């Protein structure tokens, strides 16, 4: 099937009933009858430039959605010593990102309806920049947490609205554009994790400079969104080059469909739980996998490289998996394949962590690509733009709430059991429900049908 979700409707507010469906060539004639495909001209040079600007904005925004977190993880020991944090406070700090994603992400639909998604993403990039600029100047834990929360707030709303921007401006290329920004997100994650410490050393060993340097990337990400603040037509229906056959059969009435009550949808709940379980695995991997290898006798430097290998696996696969997912009516087989990779990787960590370290790192990196798959399914499980906005906010907020206790629970089990047997068994055990709910979320249906 084509590289797109089944239906294509912009995330326009329900009151705007005369907008032309995004990415279609069928329009509504004044009489209410659907017009012919020839009535809608191909996008002109101005629109093509606009779409190019949106694509650049998506890539730069995605590059900034994780450095605020992974750069801090790389320098957590230095930050803790510099701000005189206790071990418990430093541990809580690692759980702040998913908490902020859940709390602030739920506000994205309301903000998008009022100001437009592009304006909210622009504000999100500005918040990331401001938080990263202020964080190095913090003289105490409270100020550091406040600056971090500001950056995470910008990340949270941008997280939710990335699928919405893709659905709105590129309805005929959901898979490829989701893969593009997912690949950029994975690249930003791995580069920040690997480069922060070397850059800090080059800058004289000051952790404040090592963290603050990432504000420059955030400032760059604000720029392409500024011209889009004037693109108010994008809030109703930007014309795109989607194929004529992509238009929904009821295109003349699609904008009139009210936004669904997401909490009534079983698919929305399945997608939220799937998102939460894959996020749990990702945060556990980022936070604890190097320690698992080190305790098994792997040198510290090698353990860091193994984590980098796991993160880098997401760069190419984040582009391939969404494109593959949009060509399938049911994404369940992909969910199961990724889950089995994770289950095998955790089993290897349990039985032979050092002997097969490189294999387990690769398998867990493949398993972590459930994240771009979840983002792709968000765009496919709703046939209206308003539904995508609400589904994205719901699935990500529920998911990040679910993911909060995972890293903390692993730490508690490790401390009280004196080894990695129970924690790794827990990690592997979570892959089973992840495959179950992911298969349910991957069924060929939309939340509007269920609501």
Short descriptors:
mainly alpha, 451 residues
Could you explain the architecture of this structure?
By secondary structure, the chain is mainly α. Helices cover 67% and strands 0% of the residues. It contains 21 helices and no strands. Helix 1 crosses helix 9, helix 5 crosses helix 8 and helix 15 runs antiparallel to helix 16. The longest helix has 30 residues. The two termini are 25 Å apart. 57% of the residues are buried. The N terminus is likely disordered.
The residue fraction in helices comes out at 55-70%
The proportion of strand residues reads: under 5%
Task: Compute the number of helices.
Answer: 21
Report, as a whole number of angstroms, the end-to-end distance: 25 Å
The sequence of SSEs as H and E is HHHHHHHHHHHHHHHHHHHHH
Oligomeric state of the chains in view: single chain
Q: What global shape is seen?
A: globular
By secondary-structure content and strand pairing, the structural class works out as mainly alpha
Model regions low in confidence, pLDDT < 50 over at least 5 residues: 1-41, 233-256
